[in-house]
Q: What sequence folds into this?
């Protein structure tokens, strides 16, 4: 240990919040529309923003469900093909496709998230937006699913084509989910 | 446990400099802690957040996350970023004399 009682005479120990460090940037591409695949980017983005990192999320393909007003509050989780979920539920894989199983699994997952006080997707996106997160919709997906800005969350910063997104995230650490 | 001297008081801190003893904190010390990290002066808006963090810690036994400060404390997230720039969760905890929040959100 370099710090002990002797150091009380010297400069106080003050945390280094890294305010002078080089500006970091992080980007997430959200391409999935299931409940379980929505949260990883949201939680990591929240952590990045709390650390003062410039954060961008680009929603594309099935990830559009995360920002579509009609679907964003009603994402589903299915255990179909998910070996972890079937092991935890002691359920043979063939039953996972039965009617009602996805609803039950979704209900259970939402309950677990709620117990940890993790907000639902629309509330989470608003929280991220308040923290300064940039939320972008993919132009091609908007066209493909015939969406307009009115169909998507008001927290959205805009619709971007891929070239513009690539330009914006210059130098960012990027994760595709 | 390291000991450091702030505002003329000997204070127990962790390796990074966050206070480890809840009762060693005072408002004067908080003012000095804030000044140490460039938050000067402390306004009523700053103190309102610090007061919430300290009372919530007493009830919960852990430091409130940014989400909790906003959802339970009722503080606007955007204003927290203005009051405690860049890394509000950690800076608020430091000024309040509490450990860093352990939760992810």
A:
């Amino acid at each position: 240990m370099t710090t002990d009682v002797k150091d009380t005479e010297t400069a106080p120990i003050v945390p280094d919040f890294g305010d002078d460090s080089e500006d970091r940037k992080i980007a997430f591409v959200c391409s999935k529309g299931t409940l379980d695949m929505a949260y990883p980017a949201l939680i990591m983005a929240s952590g990045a923003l709390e650390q003062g990192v410039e954060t961008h999320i680009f929603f594309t393909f099935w990830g559009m469900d995360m920002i579509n007003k009609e679907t964003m509050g009603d994402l589903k989780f299915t255990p179909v093909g998910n070996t972890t979920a079937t092991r935890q539920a002691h359920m043979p894989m063939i039953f996972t496709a039965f009617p009602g199983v996805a609803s039950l699994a979704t209900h259970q997952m939402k309950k677990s998230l709620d117990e940890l006080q993790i907000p639902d997707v629309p509330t989470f996106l608003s929280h991220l937006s308040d923290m300064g997160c940039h939320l972008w919709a993919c132009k091609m997906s908007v066209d493909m699913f015939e969406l307009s800005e009115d169909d998507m969350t008001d927290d959205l910063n805009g619709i971007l084509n891929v070239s513009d997104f690539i330009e914006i995230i210059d130098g960012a650490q990027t994760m595709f989910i | 446990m390291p000991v450091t001297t702030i505002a003329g008081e000997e204070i127990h801190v962790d390796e990074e400099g966050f206070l480890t003893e809840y009762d060693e904190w005072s408002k004067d010390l908080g003012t000095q802690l804030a000044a140490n990290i460039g938050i000067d002066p402390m306004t009523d808006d700053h103190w309102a957040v610090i007061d919430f963090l300290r009372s919530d810690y007493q009830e919960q036994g852990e430091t409130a996350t940014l989400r909790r400060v906003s959802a339970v404390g009722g503080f606007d997230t955007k204003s927290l970023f203005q009051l405690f720039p860049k890394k509000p969760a950690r800076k608020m905890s430091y000024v309040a004399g509490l450990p860093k929040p352990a939760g992810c959100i």
